[in-house]
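Task 17 of the worksheet. Students: predict the tertiary structure of the chain below and write it out as structure tokens. Keep your answer in the requested format; marks are given for formatting as well as content.
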Amino acid sequence: MRTLFHRVFASAALAALLAGPAAAAATITIVNLDGPGEGFNDATAAAPVGGNPGLTIGQQRLNCFQEAANIWGSLIDSSVPILIQSAFNPLSCTATSATLGSAGPRFIEFNEPSFEFQNVWYHEALANKQVGFDLTPPGAAGPGDNGSDINAQFNTNIGTPGCLTGSGWYYGFDHNEGTKIDLLAVLLHEFAHGLGFSTVTNGSTGAYFNGPPALPALWDMFLYDETTGLHWDENSAVQRQSSAINSGNLTWDGALVTAAAPLTLAKMPELLVPFGSGSFEASAASFGAALTTGGITAQAIVVNDGVAAMLTTDACETPFVNAAAMAGKIAVIDRGTCTFPVKALNAQNNGAIGAIIVNNTGGSLSPGGTDPSVTIPVIGISQADGTALKAAIGGGATTVTMRFHPTRKAGLHPNGRVRMYSPNPYQSGSSVSHYDVSLTPNALMEPAINGDLTSSVDLTVPLFRDIGWIPRLLSAPGGGASTRVALASSPNPTHGEMSVSFDLAADETVELALYDVAGRQVRMLAKGRFSAGPNRVAWDGRDDRGRTASPGVYLARLKGPHTTATQTVVLVD
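Model answer:
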């Protein structure tokens, strides 16, 4: 007889803004909660756009939701259908900022015998995947309940007067949104939260979700504080509270993300300074000239725009009081009041050859926006580093260099792990459950939408593998206790040829294939019946077409009726 274990209803309000791809297959269905004439049922006529064939606003919205569901469904692995109950509703909004949407698990689960990890909370869809059946079928939460696993709602007011005025939702599938907001990218991001890209631990207090019992989330097992050397399931509530605002030092400790990140991320921008450690970490703006490894070197000058009522150093008014001194220099600008492109363009028009924008809160700053007329390089630095830089400038001429670090990657901690978003002060709905804004290129699961996003799910794929969307351990025949015999590969990393070994509990017909991180098959290494005990298969470093495989992170996957396992393989030059 099937036993349903402890079940709790989780908050659906896990706010954010983006999304992306993984591997295998799952069926994801959108459940329409909107009433007649609203949201998905809005009958306002519309012309097909960007591959979306809908002829009404409502149909285009629903098509876009299902497109996002189909993308995720083609990339994750579950035999249990996933239902996302969805609606368009009026959400918080002003002329310049808005909540675009939110999504999260309707239920969370713990201690099903089939779970890879015990005594942690699982998001419902991932829990269902691991047990192989629906833990909350229709009616389980009460009469008439539709059995959905994820709740999603999006802002119906976007683009109306007073709500991001001048913008609006873009319903095409081609990410050609122009001045509008790419709904498909936002949906991919939000659906990822509902599928497991978030914690149910309270980051502002450090308290575990109390079902009861009070347990860490699966997410917390991989959330690592570089200062304490502890994961979130190992430390105290006070330590977690501090960790959530430990800017730059909260990282993801999953093996697959750590392996994939160096091959995904670009070089880290940095600012060389003639004091202290000699350099500051920086983030490149989404506009302006690209940095180079050689960089640009000039004297740094703090902007004075002469308007003290706002902030004389925010570069929002022009001409600058110190325009004559700015010519040929690098402008140091404080965040606030006007947009990043406006600040940079004003600095450029006053003679600056580069711009450094200083954050006004803890954490890294990645200046966003677009303006093709900005042709100087622009970077963002932390508030603490900006304070030190301005103090040095106040003490005399200070020459700096804006450049790419020759070896380090943007968004990686020096210890090699990917940084998670942990600004100070804590930002509810964003902190802890997103990648840091310092990642370059911009990642789908950063806390704010960026104009360069597509349907790529970049580092979301290896993270979903880390948390178990793709099985990583072997199972014993007949559904018994896990033997936990992992694949092994040697040498790893490899420059080409290598061998992959595995140990079967019984004779079995299996497939051993190599995939890239997007889930595409690169090479079928073996297919057939193998004997119980140790087995070894060679790989010559070539793909199925006989071409030399490109350097990168690959996944060796063993699959049979009774066994499934994956192993990361790193191919280097």
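Marker's comment: The CA atoms of residues 100 and 461 lie 23 Å apart. The chain has a mean pLDDT of 88.
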